[in-house]
Predict the structure.
Amino acid sequence: MSKVLLRFTYFLALFLAYSCSNPLDVSIDKSSYKLNEIRIDNLFNQSTLSGTVSEIKTYYSKIPEILEYQLYYCYKTGMPTDAGFDSSYMDIKSNPYFQRLEKGTSEKFKTLKQKTSTIENGLKRLNIHLPQAKLPENLVYMNSYFASSVYCTEKDIAIGLERYLGENNKVIKELPNETFYAWIKKAMDERYMERDAVCAWIMTHICEPQKDLNNISAFIQWGKILYLTKAAFPNVDESIILRYSDKSYQWAVTNERMVWEYLVKENLLFRKNETEQANFLQEAPFTAGLPQNSPDRMGQFMGYRIVCSYMEQYQLSLSELLTTPYNELLSEYEIND
């Protein structure tokens, strides 16, 4: 083989190795970060009131804000030191549906060690990319009684396990359809749990959505949040990162240009309008203004595609991405047909 051919083969191999590498997929081997797992999803499953009170006191020293959230906001029993706790406790503990719900979560989620490990590794990757970023100390699995999927404090991530039982679980099917619409039940999918936990932490502690933004800036802000979530899970399908079904994700990708042209034609990009932002950013059966077979949150999708387009061209660090203004990211947006 000639020297020219050898040299060409060598550089081709280098090019292929570089082009096929994923800059987000960093090694976490040297990370010493540790996430503590705490389970309080069956807190009221004790046989006696005194046993429950004792367990509450034990956990309160570790996760006071989470327990207060669960007992005051989710269960509305208050703390054991509050007047009326005993009565409220007995009301909820004897509620047949609550009993079936606790049984449902305990049966489906006998162990959560693999999910804890996946979330911990995702946070480790964020730590490698963003060494100064704040990370949680505890991962708490709870029963929020459908109050929230994920709730974050200054040092904790709490996951409401009941929100991940799946639409076909019998206790989910029991939920009233006039309150829990079919699209809400469909979103109660276990495969989004790890993504939701890390994404919630990012949006509360690393890249918090700001107020008083124009529409496209708000979309791109969400694009940054989702891109950081992708950095935590670089090998997870983008449909999971975007919290879409495969069908919804394909619709979004196929119709990206149509959605962009709609935003431009309707002069939606640079207006400051809370209703328009809610239509494009919040969960719903579809994105208002677009066809009814569109997925919801298409503003998040468009913001994510804008960020991805920029990062594919310039490969900034995540810390640089966080400080890059929206108009610079927008100026380099390219739609791949």
Summary: The mean pLDDT is 93. Residues 3-20 form the longest helix (18 residues).
